[in-house]
Design a protein that fits this description.
38% helix; alpha/beta; binds adenosine-5'-diphosphate; Carbamate kinase; eight-stranded mixed sheet; four-stranded mixed sheet; binds magnesium ion; 317 residues
């Protein structure tokens, strides 16, 4: 492995707003601080570091707010909501990290870059959206909402009816050069929040927003490649990636090679909405020069840096 320590840390949106909590701002700040313990350890070890984060629960809450206040203030489109949430979460993560560094006497600048992520305007998911967002609705509300809001609503099997939006594949980041420059100067950059704000490029080179969401794991892999990171840490709710997840014959994995990861993904061990994109992100990163991907929980991040837990995905053993 190369001498210089350069990593991207991707924080799960569920690590900051937890399913079993109300999700008020005190809880969000407390969870944010907790989710940064391993990151501070990496900074102490001299890593150049970029941080990304998810936004699922936060965008879900924002959509509820917009719907509830529709008769009082004009609604915002999803693209702008994603941008607003990226700013708010960037502020929370950035300030929490700055405060930790101040207390530790570590002098490193921290900045949040609002990131636009370029997608293909002909991406199949724009024509046929499948990503569920926001609250659940009753069956008898569906037709009215589809007509009045222009939404597409589908059944989330076993859970109810929900709006679906495009989740196009990320291609590159508009702000990649500035992020790379800051990263190279040892600034800790928070970017690509929630996967970034999806935009496509018009024929004349201008940008146009897409009312959709981009997967934060796939976008984090793109970021890691663009800035020349060697390591990608994906922090989520499980300590290790497993085969036969949730079944009696579950096997937790310490290590996977790139070819193992591809095979297990093809065999269906990693579902599309959760572990699938993390493994796909690992594959994308390792195929484009990445040296190692570590998937673990925020609680186990410190141990995982030392190689004592988590699942490590590497090009070859
Ligand atoms: P995040 O908010 O961090 O992106 P997700 O819920 O999208 O988290 O994905 C992580 C979840 O994927 C885990 O908490 C776990 O419940 C689930 N999961 C699905 N398949 C697996 C697997 N094979 N191994 C481990 N976890 C899995
Ligand atoms: Mg996820």
């Amino acid at each position: 492995m190369s001498q210089e320590k350069k990593a991207v840390v991707a924080l799960g949106g569920n690590a900051i707003t937890r399913e079993f909590e109300e999700g008020n701002i005190y809880q969000q700040f407390a969870n944010t601080r907790r989710s940064l313990l391993g990151t501070v350890e990496m900074i102490k070890q001299g890593y150049k570091l970029a941080i990304t984060h998810g936004n699922g629960p936060q965008v879900g809450n924002y959509l509820i707010r917009v719907e509830a206040a529709r008769h009082l203030v004009p609604p915002l489109p999803l693209g702008v909501i994603v941008a607003d949430v990226e700013g708010g979460m960037g502020y929370m993560i950035g300030q929490s990290l700055q405060n930790k560094l101040i207390r530790e006497g570590i002098h490193r600048d921290v900045v949040t870059i609002l990131t636009q992520v370029i997608v293909d305007r002909d991406d199949p998911s724009i024509l046929n959206p499948t990503k569920f967002v926001g609250p659940f609705y009753q069956r008898d509300q569906v037709e009215k909402l589809q007509k009045e809001r222009g939404w597409i609503i589908k059944e989330d099997p076993g859970r109810g009816y929900r709006r679906v939006v495009p989740s196009p594949k990320p291609i590159t980041l508009v702000e990649r050069n500035i992020i790379r420059q800051l990263f190279d100067q040892e600034v800790i950059v928070i970017s690509t929040g929630g996967g970034g704000i999806p935009v496509y490029v018009e024929k004349d080179g201008t940008l146009e927003g897409v009312d959709g969401v981009v997967d934060k794991d796939l976008a984090s892999a793109i970021l890691a490649v663009e800035i020349g990171a060697k390591e990608l840490f994906i922090l989520t709710a499980v300590e290790k990636v497993a085969l036969n997840y949730g079944k009696p014959n579950q096997i937790d994995l310490d290590t996977m090679t790139l070819s193992d990861a591809k095979r297990y993904l093809a065999e269906g061990h990693f579902p599309p909405g959760s572990m699938g994109p993390k493994i796909q992100a690992a594959i994308d990163f390792l195929e484009r020069g990445g040296e190692i991907v570590v998937i673990t929980s925020v609680e186990k991040h410190v141990e995982a840096i030392e190689g004592r837990t988590g699942t490590r995905i590497v090009p070859l053993i």
